[in-house]
Write a structure and sequence with these properties.
mainly alpha
Length: about 60
């Protein structure tokens, strides 16, 4: 695999993980959970979850 192909592959995987994380956070928000509870449940950094929560009105449909 060429270096450029590896970089694209890695970036696609990162984007997929982020998309999945946002999707999970949106589901938890609709169930009434706050950023602290979601971060604890998903074992993620609270500040990262708070960023998703702060834009949830735009990304959670």
């Amino acid at each position: 695999m060429s270096n450029a192909t590896e970089i694209i592959f890695v970036e696609d995987r990162k984007e997929g993980r982020m998309s999945r994380r946002v999707e999970m956070v949106c589901k938890k928000i609709t169930k009434g959970q706050n950023a602290v509870a979601i971060a604890d449940l998903l074992e993620e950094d609270e500040s990262a979850i708070q960023k998703i929560v702060s834009i949830s009105g735009y990304v959670c449909a």
